[in-house]
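Hi support team,

I've been running sequence recovery on a batch of backbones for a student project. Most finish fine, but this one hangs at about 90% for roughly twenty minutes before it completes. I'm not sure whether the input is malformed or the queue is just slow. I've pasted the structure tokens below so you can try to reproduce it. Let me know if you need the job ID as well.

Thanks,
M.K.
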């Protein structure tokens, strides 16, 4: 069934490219709402409560993925009993459809790229207020404290990090563990975005979510960094510069994974990322990544093009890996 799973990953990626995120009734938004209700019941200011919260929610979603996969297999078995000649086709189509639907559900790369282009459009037209309104859909920076260059840098850093989180990592785990891997990764990443903060409320409760997300992204972030390095010529960059920035600067970043994504992107673009970073909860002095000037609007557009190239390459590699492994 390697062909079916590979085709499902590619079809799901294609659906994301054509349609983007569902406008209404997005399953990830539904999961987030459910997680908020569970948090209201489970919250305690300690790590144990956070571990239970993480295990219950991620375990439930993983179980759902396993159940859906078994349901497709059972449906194929019933079809085999009634119509043996077409049972293989029915099961293959079922696996393709399920994998495609799950892949489309968990990917967010097209929306990420569209938002990056919209940000560039607003900045180029001088619509700073419009750009500030758009920024929270990309990251948690304080938009009111940023000028045009600051907004471009914030958007670019978010695109670099979320290229891995929104596309590379889901496809990686889809290739490794199929539909359960797709759904489990998106649950892990969503919970990290909800509670994985180092603030008074979540320092202990969100510890499990943050650490689980770090582990889940260790390999995908490095795949993303490698593809960013190899594909740097797509936007006029040099692989050697991307590799040098990655090896020299990624370890300076407080995140073991965001540092890889941002440093390799900075090197590919020939810009410097990092520095003073203002959030609503306070100011952080981030280490500088890469060499060159601070990013400007044209660099944001280049980052979007490189992100889309990395996403497409990941989809092809993931599908190829599934096909070869299952053979």
């Amino acid at each position: 069934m390697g062909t079916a799973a590979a085709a499902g990953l590619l079809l799901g990626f294609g659906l994301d490219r054509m349609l983007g995120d569902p406008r209404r009734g997005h399953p990830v938004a539904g999961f987030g709402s459910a997680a908020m209700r569970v948090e209201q019941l489970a919250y305690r200011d300690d790590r144990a409560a956070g571990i239970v919260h993480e295990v219950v929610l991620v375990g439930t979603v993983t179980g759902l993925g396993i159940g859906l996969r078994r349901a497709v297999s059972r449906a194929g078995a019933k079809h085999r009993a009634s119509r043996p000649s077409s049972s293989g086709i029915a099961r293959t189509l079922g696996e393709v459809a399920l994998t495609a639907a799950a892949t489309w559900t968990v990917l967010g790369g097209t929306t990420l790229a569209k938002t990056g282009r919209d940000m560039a459009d607003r900045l180029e037209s001088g619509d700073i207020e419009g750009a500030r309104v758009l920024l929270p859909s990309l990251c948690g920076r304080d938009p009111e404290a940023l000028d045009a260059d600051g907004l471009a840098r914030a958007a670019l850093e978010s695109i670099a990090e979320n290229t891995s989180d929104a596309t590379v990592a889901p496809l990686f785990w889809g290739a490794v563990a199929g539909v359960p891997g797709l759904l489990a990764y998106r649950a892990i990443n969503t919970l990290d975005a909800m509670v994985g903060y180092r603030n008074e409320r979540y320092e202990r409760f969100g510890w499990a979510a943050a650490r689980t997300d770090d582990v889940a992204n260790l390999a995908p972030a490095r795949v993303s960094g490698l593809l960013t390095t190899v594909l740097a010529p797509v936007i006029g960059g040099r692989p050697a510069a991307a590799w040098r920035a990655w090896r020299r600067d990624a370890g300076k970043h407080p995140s073991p994974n965001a540092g890889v994504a941002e440093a390799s992107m900075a090197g590919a673009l020939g810009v410097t990322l990092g520095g003073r970073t203002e959030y609503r909860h306070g100011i952080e002095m981030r280490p500088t990544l890469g060499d060159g000037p601070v990013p400007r609007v044209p660099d944001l557009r280049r980052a979007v093009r490189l992100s889309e190239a990395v996403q497409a390459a990941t989809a092809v590699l993931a599908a190829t890996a599934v096909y070869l492994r299952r053979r």
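--
Follow-up from support: It reproduced on our side and the slowdown came from queue contention, not your input. The beta strands are 273-279, 282-289. No action needed from you.
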